[in-house]
Amino acid sequence: MARGKKGRKEEATETKRIVSLETQIEVTGDLVKRFERDLKRGSFKVITPYQLAQAYSIRISTARKLLRIANEKGLIKLYSGGRNPIYIKA
């Protein structure tokens, strides 16, 4: 028997439900503590989201969230805003 249009729609909706684990990673307390420790050691002079993503093997969006949290805590301050923000040690 040949499938109708209903059979095809059901298959398409099942593939949309798959969610990768990489998109669910959020900023954890452990990651914040690790960043604070590295910041105190003087590992970073100028901090960008790309540098954090490379150093901690995280996504750039997660690195941006981490930088915003650190800025709110007063650990770093915004030097240059825009598309690629640059932070310096406070």
Tell me the series of helices and strands, N- to C-terminal: HHEHHEE
Q: How does the helix and strand content classify structurally?
A: alpha+beta
Instruction: Report the principal-axis shape.
Output: elongated
Rg, Å, rounded? 20 Å
**The CATH homology group name:** Winged helix-like DNA-binding domain superfamily/Winged helix DNA-binding domain
Q: Can you characterise this structure?
A:
With 90 residues, the chain is an alpha+beta fold. The chain has a single domain, classed as Arc Repressor Mutant, subunit A, CATH 1.10.10. Helix content is 52%, strand content 12%. The protein has four helices and three strands, in the order H-H-E-H-H-E-E. The chain has helices spanning 5-16, 29-41, 49-56, 60-73; strands at 46-47, 76-80, 86-89. A three-stranded antiparallel β-sheet has the order 1-3-2. Strand 2 (76-80) and strand 3 (86-89) form a beta hairpin. Helix 3 crosses helix 4. The relative contact order is 0.14. The model has no long low-confidence stretch (mean pLDDT 83).
